[in-house]
Structures are given as C-alpha cells and as structure tokens.
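Researcher: Quick one. two chains, 912 residues in total.
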Amino acid sequence: MSKEIPYKIYLEENEMPKQWYNVRADMKNKPAPILNPATLKPVTVDELSGIFCTELAKQELDDTTAYIDIPEEIRNFYKMYRPAPLVRAYCLEKKLGTPAHIYYKFEGNNTSGSHKLNSAIAQAYYAKKQGLRGVTTETGAGQWGTALSMACAYFDLDCQVYMVKVSYEQKPFRREVMRTYGAKVTPSPSMTTDVGRRINEEFPGTTGSLGCAISEAVEAATSQDGYRYVLGSVLSQVLLHQSIIGLETKAALDKYGIKADMIIGCAGGGSNLGGLISPFAGEMLRGEADYKLIAVEPASCPSLTRGRYVYDYCDTGKVCPLSKMYTLGSGFIPSANHAGGLRYHGMSSTVSQLYHDGLIEARSVEQTEVFKAAEQFAKVEGILPAPESSHAIKVAIDEALKCKETGEAKNIVFGLTGTGYFDMVAYQKYNDGLMSDYIPTDEEIEKSLSGCPKVD
Amino acid sequence: MSKEIPYKIYLEENEMPKQWYNVRADMKNKPAPILNPATLKPVTVDELSGIFCTELAKQELDDTTAYIDIPEEIRNFYKMYRPAPLVRAYCLEKKLGTPAHIYYKFEGNNTSGSHKLNSAIAQAYYAKKQGLRGVTTETGAGQWGTALSMACAYFDLDCQVYMVKVSYEQKPFRREVMRTYGAKVTPSPSMTTDVGRRINEEFPGTTGSLGCAISEAVEAATSQDGYRYVLGSVLSQVLLHQSIIGLETKAALDKYGIKADMIIGCAGGGSNLGGLISPFAGEMLRGEADYKLIAVEPASCPSLTRGRYVYDYCDTGKVCPLSKMYTLGSGFIPSANHAGGLRYHGMSSTVSQLYHDGLIEARSVEQTEVFKAAEQFAKVEGILPAPESSHAIKVAIDEALKCKETGEAKNIVFGLTGTGYFDMVAYQKYNDGLMSDYIPTDEEIEKSLSGCPKVD
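Model:
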C-alpha cells in the first residue's frame, strides 16, 4: 500500500456509499429513548408521525438496523456535490513543521456551504415521497435553512423557515440565498404562531433563540395540512444521513491504505461529529479497531464538557419530545459575543451516550484561538473555514504540534464542515482585534440546568 | 467511446495540464502590439518590466511560443482547488426538456469564488521568484483582489489592493476576506497616490471606477521599491494562465469522447472567455476542428457588440500601455443599476482580434433575464452562480431551448466562472422585483469613444 497520496482523494461514483450506517445498531448501551412530553413515555412511530414524515419517524426510532439503503433519488442529488474530497493538508503540515499527516473531509463545496445538505435532501425526499405539500424548520445562522431551501427547490416542495430574529436582521445574505431558492423566511419569534406571540409578549423586544424558532416551526407544521417539521441536527435520523461523511472518509482512507489515529469534529448538536465518526465508532464497538475520537465544542456553550447527562427539553416551547443528552438546560443561551454556530444547549443522544461510555473525548476551546487557527489554515490551505469548522481545525493543529514534539507521524483526520463566506462579520471583529472570549460561570450553568424536567 | 458520463468529470492529478497554451502562437493575425503611452511605439520587455515582473512582461509580449511550462510550485497550488470539475447539467437538461447535453466548467470551488485565482497564483509566483517584496492591484467587486490576497498569503508576499470605493463600502465582506488573508485594502480613489488625489480633487465625492483604481495601483507599484503591479484580466499573460480552464475542459471532454458543438463564456475583460476557448480556438486556427464560440456580455457594457476596434487607454489615468481592442472608450462607466461585474470598458486584445476575425460571435443580454436564468439554474443544479457567470448560463439555456425546437442533441459547454455568495445585494434586488435594465444610448457610447487616442 504505497500509492502516492494525492492532495485530494475523490471517490469515483461507483465507490460512493449506497447505504447509510446506523451506529446505534452496534451500540450495546443504546441511546435512551426520546419521551413524549405529555406522557413522559417513550414516543411511538405513530406519535412521531404527527411531527415528522413517517419514514423519518421510523428512522428516528430504529436502533437495530445497521445499514439502510440510500434511495436512488438522494444518491443522484448527492452526485451534484459529492463525493466531498478528503484533502491531505500538505501545506498546513509544512507550515507547522509536523511529521503528522493531516487530512480533512471538506463538506463546504455546495451553495449551502456546509454538510447540512446531506440530511436536508434526505428529509425533503421523504416528505415528497409521502405526498406532502411542504416542510417547516428553524435556522440560526442560516446554514441549515439554506440547505433545506436548496433541497426543497430540487423536489418542488414548499419550504417555510423560521429564522432566529437576530440572524434574520444581521445576516440578510443567508436570508436572500434562501429566498432565491424559493423559501419563505420568517423572523422568529413571529406573530404567526401561538408560541411566537406568547414569547413576544413575555419577552418584548427579544431577538429570538434556536429553541424558540424550533417551537414555532413545529407549531407551523402541525397546524397546516400537508406539512411536517424537519430539523438539521441533534436527531438520530440526521446522524444516520450524515454517516455519509464518515463512510466516504473511511472509503477514501482505505483506498490509500491509511489508518487514522484520531478523528476530530466540531460539535454543536452533533450532526457533523456523529456522522463523521459513525463508521469508526462502529469498528470500535465491534472490537475491530481503535481510534481516538475528539468532539470539540466552544467554551461558551460547553454541553459535553460541563453539561449534565439528563433528560431535557429540546426546544424552548417544550413541544418536542424529551431527549436524554448532555445538556446545559434548554434555557441556556450563549453569550452575545459568541460568534459561530454550535450554540445549541444539548447534544445528540447518540453522541451523548458514546461520550458517556468513553468512546469519545471532548474538548472546549475559546473563540479567539479558534479564529486564529482559522486564519492560519486559510492562509496556507486556501479555504476560508466556517467558525464552527474552525473548532476542529484548532484541535487538529494542537495535535499536530504535539506530534512535532514527540516526532510521531500520526494520521490526524478532521471534519471541515463548511465555509465562512457568510460569517465575515465575525472575521471582521477578529481582524479588527475586537473579538473577546466568554466562559459561562458554574452558577449560570447550574441555574439553567435547574429548568430540566424531573425524569429518570 | 460509450463510457457512461458521470455528473462531474474530474481529471486525475496525472491528467492535469503541465503547460499553458498561448493561442497567439497559432493566430495568423496577431493581436496588435500594446503601445507605450508616451512614445506610441510598441512597448519592449524592458519598458514593461518597470510595471510587471520580468517573466510576466515576457509572457505579455510573447506571441510565438505555443506552450509554456507551468512551474511546479504553481501546479502544486493548483492541486489545492483544481482540477475544477466539468459538470454534466443533467438536472438542468431535464428541467428544460432539451435533447441537448449541457456541460459547465465550474471554477467557483475556491475561497476567492472564481477563476481569477488561476492567474493570481501565477503572478504571485513570478513576483516571489523575482525576489519582490509585494504587489499592488485594483479590484472592483473584489473577486480578483480576494484571489490575489490568497495567492500572496501562500507565497508570503505583501499585497496592496486598491478597491473601487463604492465596492469597498457596499461589499465589506469581500474586503474582510482580503484582510483575513493579510492584504492591505485601500478605497479608491484614495489620498495615498498623486492620481488618486487628482481625481478626488477633480470629482469630489466620486465613488471610483476600475480604471481609476488601476491608475492608483500602477503608481503605488512604481513608487515603492520591490513592488510590481498585477492585473487580473484583459492582459495576454492572464489569458495564458487562464488557458488552464480550457485545457482541463478539453481533456475532460476528450476523456469521454465528447465533441463540443459550442463553447459559451461570459466576457468582461476576457480572462475567463479567453482561457476557456483558447485550446478550441487553437484547433480552429490550425484547421483541425470547428466550434461555435460565443462571448456573452451585459447589454449595459457592450464592448464587443457595440464598441469600436481601436487603440484605447486601459485605465482612466492613462498610465498603462495602450491596447488595440473593442472598446467603449476609457471613460465609459456602466449605469449605476448594473449589478454584476463585466463592467470593463474594453476587451482583451486577443479576444478582440479573434472576434474581429470571425472566430468568436458575441451576444449581449440584459440583467433581469440573466438573474432569471441564474435562479433557474440554482434551483436545479444547486450552485448559486455569480452574476457574471450567469450571463453564460442565460445563453446556454437559450441554445438548449433552440435544440428542444429542432430536436438536436448538441453538446453545449459553458464556463461557470464563480459563485454569487458575495452578490446577495443584487439577488435581493432581483428577489424583491426591484431590478431594472439599462442599455446605453448610441450617443453615450459615441461620446465616450470620442476620448480614444488618435493612433492607427
């Protein structure tokens, strides 16, 4: 196995995965079931089908089927922007002077600018197949909303996006991309839903939050005929769709006989990380191989490193099922000076369980050093990374520098989830030396956690 | 030759071109020589070397060498974002219901968002090799400035960008990308150059123009030790570097035994169009094949379709060599409602000569229909195109619809030069139904042309 490794490893169309991998099937300790908020009993497919498409509700609750066929229509869409390249970061290695080999899986080569499209197209497909008129969703920074807009345009589905008000106003360009793809974008909290009106009344002048936008989108879905709600992260179905990232990564590494030593991903709700590590965690669970899996989260929203592993609400309005996860409490909102995404209070139940069982380790990093890593990466590798992705870059560089000290030629793989073209306000802050860090106090986290429901 | 054609044709690293192609070598009617503005005599390499790096000055004047080796350092950088895929627009074909096969060469998969990087890295390389400290340039919308900033960061060269003031103020994000890559960005006209001060005095409150920014950048280069000026379009050296687009396109087509019937490119200064068509025009010039080559320009800046083929100034300050080209006069500025790029008053001398000799045909299109084509393309092909690129999309769609009428399965190839992520203000205007068209009157063009120098 001494083939020369190209800058970018592209799989051929016939090497592309034809099935998603459901890591839950190989987990002895399954993620705890999600609970109906009214009964506190595990939700059934029937109950979930009121919110999600039936097929997606099934995927959400299926923790035994290891491989699920990717429908041909989805594989055709994937061809438009996949395979995503696995890039050997030759220039970064040289710049750092490290003997480590650094690889990154780049998911930013599509107009939504991130990996979110992988699940958006799957969810839109099942909605279309079920004969629905449209879907509703929330979006924060806008990556997910953009991805869903693209997917819905492709399948000619109506797309209604509740966009956190502060982003709607401060990120007009993301909004316009969604509109160009035909989506209807509403700033949240709005006056178009009960929960929106209630929140606006209770907190006049609020600029919104992700949890609040989720509640509005769910209400909009359940109060219109022919609509369902879709979500871009946290859910088990999303991790299933995002396993395409890890499967392609593994196929590309295998193609050149490369054994990864560690796999690093940024973690907000867990969609990218969960998808990236899935097949590797599967090998670990089956006792076939060992890897160091690292979740990187912002110090300002540290659900894994400082949260608690309990049942919690997934949204502010408490209309969604409860999930057992590492959480900071559903009322937790990162400091206003937090620039990037990764601002969700909880974490995918699958990632949470794997972390709880010691298969994943977690690190938190502060944003100034994240942007410093982003700038360093951009200058030598060309790509201007999203702030979210740059969390993984930061830890990959740290690990590569450790290798420099020890002289080890480790294979470091990280997920570069997307590009930062719509995050230039944050870059400007960094360029102007105006970026600051904020770490929540223990008291703040305790207070927020006190709002968790009493289950268990 | 019945290999199934994938969505995206990627060349392997060993299939990548190792030489640029200089179409001038195969032209019987060479482009007219550029003239020293002081003597009105053809410039020499020595004279040009005061403005450009010596190697680039040689390339600028070399109209006999057909193939020029691409230095290894440049080929290594190309690997970071090349090969650019040649995409079969299966979804667009289906949407249009056309029997035509549509292919586009997508140059937007890099942070500068366009093909400009192909020449930026070459010019930065030669500057570095000559031992220079840095380079100066101008930028309008910012694609070229961004590309040059990336290239200079890679080679650790100082980069000074004069950005047309109206763009500097209205496109702060492009500016921040450049700053992130370490460039110094100055709004033009500035008070840092003689020509800038003169223009500011003569036209108080002016928001600048490309021609004016060029003059400032040239002055900045020639008044600092160890600096040279670089330019992203129009020049023959730029077309040489951009021939990589056409060479890769041709290699990808050949790989699958596809014979293009027509090749369509948007045309501002001619860098993309010239690069894309070079090898195809070469075959035509050598009598080996025939193609329909189409240049598409905005109706608001119609240098080929309504300009005059004469010697003209390349910049407002009249400090650059004169070039014989299709021009609207160096004082021509497109209407303020013109959204996209492609706003240069002239056209590459090579493209001009090929057009004059009937090898290229030209069409002008209005911007509302361009954005309509862009939206249609985005919805089915996923990629949100740059307004510039969308000019080519518009004509490709027109041609595909003609095939639908005639039932011909023509192979239509067009250049998708870049993405529109930094053009959302224009898209917003379109989405809101506020976009309008403007076509200059004959009188306006005549008036502007009257400022051309009396040469010939």
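The radius of gyration of chain B is 20 Å.
Researcher: Thanks, that's what I needed.
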